[in-house]
Amino acid sequence: MGDEQFEPDLYALREAADEFPFDDVVRLLGDRHTRAVLVYLHDHPAPTLEELADVVTAKVASETGAIAAPSDREQIQLRLYHAILPRLAELGFIAFDTETKAVSETDIPDAVSDALGVTDTEA
Fold it and tell me: According to the lineage, what is the superkingdom (predicted)?
């Protein structure tokens, strides 16, 4: 599974690039940590920073086949807090409270979810 590459839905990727600056879309979907966060937020719209750090750390460990060390989780948590979550908030995808360290709202555009292959199963 560690050799598996991300292959977005190209039609959905084009729609996402029409809604947002191309560089933003590439940056979002080109980063495995950000992809893991966006996929998780699809079904869990109000997680804490700690919860997201656990999820992303576990995802990376499962992809690489390695056992995650506490320092790996700490690095991911710092990156989430200082880079990934503020960027998603800046784009309007989430509301992130730096005091409580929690996501309070999620509004990920359908085109981005579609490009990630995350779809609602309810009709």
Answer: Archaea
Q: How many whole angstroms separate alpha carbon 16 and alpha carbon 90?
A: 16
3-state secondary structure of 112: helix
- Number of structural domains (the chain) is 1
Residue 18, domain member (yes or no): no
39-93 pLDDT, tens per residue?
999 999 999 999 999 999 999 999 899 999 999 999 999 999 999 999 999 988 9
Find the domain containing 99 and state its range: 28-116
DSSP 3-state assignment of 74?
helix
Q: Report the distance separating Cα 70 and Cα 89, nearest Å.
A: 26
State the DSSP string of 11-49. HHHHHHHHHS-HHHHHHHHH-HHHHHHHHHHHH-SS-BH
Judge whether 16 lies within some domain: no
Rounded Cα distance, 56 and 62, in Å: 10
**How far is it, in rounded angstroms, from Cα 80 to Cα 72?**
12
